[in-house]
Structures are given as structure tokens and as C-alpha cells.
Structure prediction request, 278 residues.
Amino acid sequence: MVQNFKFSNQPFNMGSKYRNQLVYIFAIPLFFMVFSIFYTPFDIMEFYSGAQGKEFSFHIIMLSCISLGTLAISRTMLHFVLKATEMGWFQYIGWCLGEVLGITFFFALYTVLIKADGQNYFQHFSYCLKYSYLELVFIYIPMTLSRAVTLKNGMLEARQQQADGSLVRFHDEHQRLRLTIAPSSLLYVKAESNYLKICYMEAEKVREFMLRASMKSLETPAFAQCLVRCQRSYFVNPEHVTVLRKDRDGFMFAEMNIPNTPPVPVSKQYFDHLSERL
Prediction:
């Protein structure tokens, strides 16, 4: 089941795995702790230093643990809510704001317990609110925007695939789309170390494109429509093979119908399968 919420009528993929929520549970408290210790916003060091005889860093670690615990509860609840129903963009933003308010509530409660400065809970709450919302500005917004950009790219690629359903798509080792080719333009693919050399026709000229990917990535139904494995390091498009021949040393090659294109080697293991596709 895909978890998503919508903004401007566009789905936003949250992912269905709980580990997606774990990123928020651990990244946000870690950022708060590091940012507070190194940048000390809003005089936080002076405010907490010496409280109950403890060092400033001790209180920041405690506040970070409070943040982690609050987020663990909130994100676990969110995980099950998203499994049960669809959440809108504004609902999700409201949930994030509620998380920060919840963190602030416990921050202020902790502060009241450790400081004897005569201020009441609500006075401490207003102070804690200032630096707890740093998490919203510097973590929630970038993480949400990052997911939105990823979604946008995925939507554009999906639309392109829908509009050009016949194109062959090559993705790199990180699953990023790097090249799209019409099946009739593809000549062959050769493995070179950790790269694939893709040979194809463009504007009546033979072109080459180096892609960091494995030969195994070509062993899919999408590539099987236009490529046939002919040797351990080669896939060839049988549409461009004119004849299979054997040289005087007994090595077999596939002659291509494109001028000045070198023949592609063919091994005995793949000879019969390739010949059936010609």
C-alpha cells in the first residue's frame, strides 16, 4: 500500500515502510543537538548552563532525547494513520506543526523542573518555542521540499513514459534516468569495466554513451523487446544484424547493417538464441 498525501491535487509519496518515519525520528533530534551545541541560538547556552549544577551539553542531550521520544510516538501514530487513510498536504503540515508544539510542551516542562528562576510554565514555554521551531525551519522544510522535488521528477518521468511508451530507458546505478532511445535506433551495448557503452543512431550518425550500470540491469522485459545477449559483454539489437558469420579462427560475429560499425562478437552459448531472433 502506498502512503501519500495531496497538495494542489498532486500525490506526494510518503512510502509505506516505517523506516521512512525513522529518518524523521532520528534526524530531527540529532540536528537540534548539533545545532544547539555549535551555534547556541537565542542564548540557549546561558539559559541552561549551571541549571542543577549540570553542564550546558547535558541539558541539550536531555532535550534531544525528549525530542526523540516525542517524535517516536508521533511518527508511529502517523505511520498507522497513513496506512488507514489518505492525508492531505495541509493536514500533514498541521501534523508537523503539532509535533513541534508537542516537543515544545515537554521542553518547557523539563525546563520548569530544572530551573529555579521564579518563572512559571508558560513563560518557559514561550522561550522554548523559539528554539524548538528552529527544527521546523531547518529540518522539516528542507526534508519536505526534498521529497517534493523527488516526487516532481518521478511525475515528469512517468508522464514522459506515458507519452513515449515505445522508448527504451537507461538508468544508472542510482536509478536515475540518463538516456532514452527509440528501439530502432539502438545498435548494441557493450560492458566496459563498471560502465556500459551504448551504441545507437542519432541524426544518421553512430553515437556512443557511457553509462555507469551493470549488464544485469539490461536483463529485464523492457530491454528484452529490442536487445539480445550475444556474448558475455555484449547485447545486440537483432533488427540491425544482417548476418552471423564465422571467421577463419572459428570466432563468430554479427555483422551490422550500419556502415563503419564493427561486427559484434557472438559466443556459442548465445548463438542459437540470437539466430532465432533474426
About this structure: The longest strand covers residues 195-202. Residues 1-9 have pLDDT under 50 and may be disordered.
